[in-house]
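dumping this here so i dont lose it
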């Protein structure tokens, strides 16, 4: 099937031309208008000799122009390279040079870093979103371009986006996602959770991350209006939820914690907000309960860049007793648990490496066949995540294979301890790492951020571990911090915690 992701937007515009689509910073567009604007940018890109297969990078926050550009690039038969705007200019240069990007569409607020990129990359075309400068501005690029649908030839198994991983274990790798990957992942989202026509979605998860991009495409698939918020501000989030009657949003736990700290939310009209899907790390039980008191269900997701988006979902109607899981595979997906050494499938209940299959599975890493061969074997992606499947098919993530602690010859998975600690009222977030020890080899050490106004002690943390875990798994040290260090996509940077541990006497 030679499906082009740009055709999804065209179909939505044909089916729902006058339905409100994109809302943000004073602008409101229907699906017909969004599609026409994407078409105009496509014609402009072609006029500037952007050829099929060329890479076009996007450096911007959550704005409607970013998504419009994404679809325009697809319709131009080119490939989108989303950039994490939190990265240093040298890191951005690496990604741009590695991908061979020839065009950059950027937010004006990043003009300073763009000046550096002009001399460190092979970029030849720059388009500025808003502001003033020598580069052509986004709206100017659209002006006088045709509105009709362009002719495109790419699709199916052709690459449409290269998503660079966070690079926590080395240089970032570019995961090549195809048009078909994106089609199947959006369909999987629609069929797995309550994504509905004419709903309103609040876009706050960064679009440079698969957890922001895949839901965005799903909104087009389902005909859901999107409200954009470029900078996360918990007060503005609640205001928009009330003003725009937001029904659904996707977040990471640190956002949920910040939102709960806003005073007076229990007096706001939040009746439209049905559920919040959360991924990226463990969601403490207290967070589930605090949002339930507000009449809002929080639901779990396991997302993987190489799988084009969500791998599993846990929704509240699957049963509260399963909320510690990440749910079951999305539609069209399959998960098996294997021994990380032999790669043989394990029975239910045994911890092993989580492997995923399905039409959402990526094509491989850009210009990196060695790295591709390590993780992609026989149409199965070996994720490096450790977990198990219960007898009812629910998936539980235990930890990253590389984060496992070996203490006295016993395997300890930090995520198991983190889950136990996060059950304790007053814990905002927690991370566990291994500390070298002469007797045991390694011992587990916890870093804990308290909820505001809480008087938790180290003894409380140790006690909750003793009450729910084997003795050898109990944390041996507890360090309280204001917040856990996170990278640009919200993942806890345990390497920084290990460095901090070296300074603790």
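and the seq i came up w/
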């Amino acid at each position: 099937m030679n499906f082009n992701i740009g055709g999804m937007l065209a179909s939505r515009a044909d089916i729902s031309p006058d339905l409100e689509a994109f809302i943000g910073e004073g602008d409101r567009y229907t699906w017909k208008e969004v599609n026409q604007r994407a078409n105009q940018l496509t014609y402009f890109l072609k006029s500037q000799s952007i050829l099929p297969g060329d890479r076009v990078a996007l450096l911007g926050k959550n704005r409607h122009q970013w998504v419009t550009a994404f679809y325009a690039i697809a319709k131009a038969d080119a490939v989108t390279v989303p950039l994490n705007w939190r990265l240093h200019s040298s890191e951005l240069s690496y990604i741009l040079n590695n991908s061979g990007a020839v065009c950059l569409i950027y937010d004006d607020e990043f003009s300073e870093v763009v000046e550096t990129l002009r001399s460190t990359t092979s970029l030849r075309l720059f388009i500025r979103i808003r502001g003033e400068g020598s580069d052509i501005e986004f709206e100017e690029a659209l002006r006088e371009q045709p509105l009709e649908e362009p002719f495109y030839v790419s699709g199916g198994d052709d690459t449409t986006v290269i998503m660079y991983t966070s690079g926590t274990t080395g240089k970032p790798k570019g995961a090549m996602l195809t048009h078909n990957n994106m089609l199947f992942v959006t369909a999987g989202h629609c069929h797995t959770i309550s994504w509905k026509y004419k709903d309103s979605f609040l876009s706050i998860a960064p679009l440079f991350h698969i957890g922001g991009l895949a839901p965005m495409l799903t909104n087009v698939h389902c005909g859901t209006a999107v409200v954009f918020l470029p900078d996360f501000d918990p007060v503005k989030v609640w205001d928009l939820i009330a003003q725009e009657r937001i029904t659904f949003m996707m977040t990471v736990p640190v956002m949920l914690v910040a939102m709960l700290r806003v005073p007076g939310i229990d007096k706001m009209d939040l009746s439209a907000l049905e559920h919040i899907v959360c991924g990226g790390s463990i969601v403490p039980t207290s967070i589930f309960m605090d949002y339930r008191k507000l009449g809002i269900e929080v639901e779990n997701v396991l997302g993987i860049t190489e799988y084009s988006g969500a791998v599993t979902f846990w929704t509240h109607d699957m049963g509260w007793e399963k909320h510690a899981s990440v749910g079951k595979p999305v539609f069209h997906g399959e998960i098996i648990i294997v021994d990380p050494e032999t790669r043989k499938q394990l029975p239910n209940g045994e911890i092993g490496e989580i492997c995923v299959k399905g039409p959402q599975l990526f094509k491989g890493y850009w210009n990196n066949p060695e790295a591709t061969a390590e993780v992609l074997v026989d149409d199965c992606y070996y994720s490096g995540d450790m977990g198990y499947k219960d007898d009812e098919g629910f998936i539980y993530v235990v930890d990253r294979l590389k984060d496992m602690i070996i203490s006295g010859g016993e395997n300890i998975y930090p995520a198991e301890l983190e889950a136990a600690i996060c059950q304790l009222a007053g814990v905002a977030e927690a991370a566990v790492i291994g500390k070298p020890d002469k007797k045991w080899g390694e011992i587990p050490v916890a870093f804990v951020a308290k909820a505001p106004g809480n008087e938790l002690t180290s003894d409380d943390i140790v006690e909750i571990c003793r009450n729910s875990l084997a003795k050898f798994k109990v944390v041996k040290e507890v360090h309280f911090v204001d917040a856990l260090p996170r990278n640009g996509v919200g993942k806890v940077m345990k390497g920084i915690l290990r460095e901090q541990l070296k300074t603790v006497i």
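The CA atoms of residues 387 and 483 lie 26 Å apart.
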